[in-house]
Design goal:
Blueprint: H1 3-21, E1 28-33, E2 39-44, H2 45-69, H3 71-75, H4 77-100, H5 104-123, H6 130-134, H7 140-170, H8 173-203
Antiparallel strand pairs: 1-2
Length: about 210
C-alpha cells in the first residue's frame, strides 16, 4: 500500500476516535501541559478532541498544495508524502492516547520520534530548489556538496528519531519530564541544526 492511502486512513481513524469519545468526554479537559508534565490549561471538549488532529491535517494539506503547485515540491514529492504520513500517524497516536488514557509526555515523545525517523529515512533523497540549479554559480561540485549534506542531515534526523523512540519506550517517568522532553529534545534539535548549518558551509565550494 502506498503512503497516501495510509495517510488518509490515519487521519480518518484519528477523527473517528474523537467522534467515538465525544459522548463520554467531559465538557472541559486538559489541552496544554507545562514543563512538569502537568496540565496548565483546560479547553472545551471540541478543542480537546479535535484541535490537534485538525492542525496536523491542515499541515498535511499544505504539503499537498506545495507538492501540486511548487516546482521544488514536485521534485521532492517522496519527502512530502512521507511528511504527510508522519503527520497522520502523529495525529492517530495522540488520539490513541486519549482512548487509552496514556500520559501525554510519553505519547508526544514517541510521536515526535516516529516523525523524525520517517522523515530522516527519506530526507537523503531531497532535491535542490530548481532556481539554484538555474543559477550561474551552480556547478557539479555544488551539486555533489548538496547531496552529501542532505544525506548526512538525513542520518542525523533518523538518529534523533531513534533516540526519542527509545527514550519514550524506556525512560522512567521521573526522567522523561523535563529532562528528555522538552529539555533534551530542544538541546538535541539545536545541536543537530547548528551541526547541519556548519556542515553545509564547510561543504560549500568556493566561488
Amino acid at each position: 500500500m502506498t503512503r497516501e492511502p495510509l495517510t488518509i486512513l490515519g487521519f480518518a481513524a484519528a477523527l473517528l476516535i474523537g467522534a467515538v469519545l465525544w459522548s463520554s468526554t467531559p465538557e472541559t479537559l486538559p489541552v496544554h501541559w507545562g514543563l512538569n508534565g502537568q496540565p496548565d490549561r483546560y479547553g472545551t471538549r471540541l478543542e480537546g478532541l479535535f484541535a490537534l488532529p485538525a492542525v496536523l491535517l491542515l499541515a498535511a494539506l499544505m504539503t499537498r498544495v506545495m507538492q501540486r503547485f511548487s516546482e521544488s515540491g514536485a521534485r521532492n514529492a517522496t519527502i512530502l508524502r512521507t511528511a504527510r504520513l508522519s503527520l497522520a500517524l502523529l495525529a492517530l497516536l495522540l488520539q490513541l492516547r486519549l482512548l487509552l488514557n496514556a500520559d501525554v509526555p510519553r505519547s508526544a515523545t514517541l510521536g515526535l520520534g516516529l516523525t523524525f525517523l520517517l522523515i530522516g529515512n527519506v530526507l537523503g533523497k531531497a532535491e535542490p530548489d530548481a532556481r539554484l540549479e538555474r543559477a550561474p554559480t551552480w556547478t557539479d561540485e555544488r551539486r555533489r556538496a548538496w547531496y552529501v549534506a542532505a544525506r548526512r542531515s538525513a542520518h542525523r534526523l533518523f538518529a534523533l528519531g531513534a533516540l526519542l523512540l527509545l527514550a519514550g519506550l524506556f525512560t522512567p517517568q521521573a526522567w522523561l519530564v523535563p529532562w528528555v522532553s522538552p529539555v533534551g529534545l530542544i538541546a538535541l534539535v539545536l545541536v543537530f541544526a547548528v551541526w547541519t548549518a556548519v556542515e553545509h558551509r564547510a561543504l560549500r565550494p568556493a566561488r
